[in-house]
Write a structure and sequence with these properties.
This protein is an alpha+beta fold and 127 residues long. It has two helices and six strands, in the order αββββαββ. Strands 1, 2, 3, 4, 5 and 6 form a six-stranded mixed β-sheet that branches. α1 packs across α2.
Length: 127
C-alpha cells in the first residue's frame, strides 16, 4: 500500500519548485536524473544533470554530474515502506509534475530526457 500520495506529491512539488526557482544549470546538459539513495533517515532524492548522455546505455548516469542541485529531499523511512514503493511513488509524482507548468517551461521542460532510479539500480525514463 502506498503512503499518503497527496501529501507526498505536495512535498515533492514544493522541493521541485524550490529547485526551479533557485538553480541555474550549465548550458549543454543533455539529460537529468532524479537519483534516489538510502540514508539513515530513509531515502534521499536529488537532481543531477549530465552533459554525457546515451539513450541506449545508462552508464552515463554513473559519471560525476556536471550539475547537482544544492537542495535534496529526505524521504522518511519511518512508515516501513520498502524501496520499491518509494520508487513507484517517485515515478508517479515526478512523471505528473514534469508534464505541468511551471516545470514544462523550465530547464527540465522541452525534449530533454529525464530519468529516475536508485543509485545502484535501473534507471526509468519519466520524460
Amino acid at each position: 500500500m502506498m503512503g499518503d500520495t497527496t501529501a507526498f506529491q505536495a512535498e515533492v512539488q514544493t522541493w521541485l519548485h524550490e529547485i526551479l526557482t533557485s538553480e541555474k544549470p550549465l548550458d549543454g546538459i543533455s539529460a537529468y536524473r532524479f537519483g534516489l539513495g538510502e540514508v539513515e533517515e530513509g531515502y534521499v532524492l536529488y537532481l543531477a544533470g549530465s552533459k554525457i548522455y546515451n539513450e541506449e546505455h545508462d552508464e552515463w548516469a554513473a559519471n560525476l554530474p556536471e550539475f547537482l542541485a544544492a537542495k535534496e529531499l529526505i524521504i522518511s523511512g519511518d512508515d516501513g515502506r520498502e524501496w520499491y514503493w518509494i520508487l513507484l511513488e517517485i515515478i508517479y509524482v515526478l512523471g505528473r509534475a514534469l508534464r505541468k507548468m511551471p516545470v514544462q517551461s523550465s530547464f527540465l521542460g522541452g525534449t530533454i530526457p529525464v530519468y529516475t532510479g536508485f543509485e545502484s539500480g535501473d534507471l526509468y525514463r519519466i520524460k
